[in-house]
Amino acid sequence: MRGRKKPTKSANKGAAPSGQIRIIGGQHRGRKLPVHDVVGLRPTTDRVKETVFNWLMMDVRDAKVLDCFAGAGSLSFEALSRFASHATMVELDNRAAQQLTANAELLKLDNASIVNTDAMSFVGAAATTQYDLVFVDPPFNKGLASVCCEKLEANAWLESNALIYVEVESDNQDFSAPDNWQVLKEKKAGQVWCRLYQRK
User: Fold this and answer.
1) Distance of CA 131 to the CA centre of its chain
2) Which residues contact 53 (CB under 8 A, 6 or more apart)?
3) How many domains are there within the chain?
4) Under 8 Å CB-to-CB from 35, ≥6 apart: which residues?
5) Higher per-residue pLDDT: 39 or 168
6) Which of 3, 89, 109, 126 sits at 20 to 30 Å (Cα–Cα) from 73?
């Protein structure tokens, strides 16, 4: 779950109204999905999503997606709208996971899996499949991003040229990625710092 402090008004510019997320591209473009009122939940804003999926424009179709801290599922549902082959959404909070399931049913998706468990435990186990595209967008100020990325690499969750999107707080000086990940894109937007890596 993205259990973060709520962003300032300016940082949230371009987001869907409180209580919902909006799909901004693909076959479900314009659809709005309800978001459960979970304390600290911060769906990725439309502005950040637009940047991320511009980066991923040529890479989403047919991709197997893993969303490690799914929260409201904003990134996963966007990827599925843009014809990703499958998305696995890992979410610890039970109510948020139930809402992800309900929203997948609302969109009539048969290629979304919701796993109601701790992301660190999930990626800490030996991989059962490999993913082409992974979203790592953990709660702020808990030091989870670096450890999650290390586990993804160590436990063989990634395809050989996988893309990994990482989103952390903009003042985070501690994040580090595995040595064999190359930075392709980078941007700071309000309270968030975004990077797209490719595994080499």
Assistant:
1) 13
2) 24, 25, 60, 78, 79, 82
3) 1
4) 19, 20, 21, 41, 43, 72, 99
5) 168
6) 126
Q: What is the DSSP string of 103-154?
A: HHHHTT-SSEEEE-S-HHHHHHSPPSS-EEEEEE-PPTTS-HHHHHHHHHHH
Give pTM, 2 decimals: 0.89
CA gap 19, 143 in Å, rounded: 27
The predicted pLDDT at position 14 comes to 43
What's the CATH number where 141 sits?
3.40.50.150
Q: Which domain covers residue 93, as residue numbers?
A: 20-199
pLDDT tens by residue, 109-133: 999 999 999 999 999 999 999 999 9
- The answer to whether residue 195 sits within a structural domain is yes
Is 1 inside any structural domain? no
Note the residue count of the chain.
200
141: in domain:
yes
Task: Give one word for 143, left, alpha or beta, with left for phi > 0 and alpha for psi -120 to 50.
Answer: left
- pLDDT at residue 64 above 80? yes
Residue type for position 183: V
pLDDT at residue 1 tops 60 = no
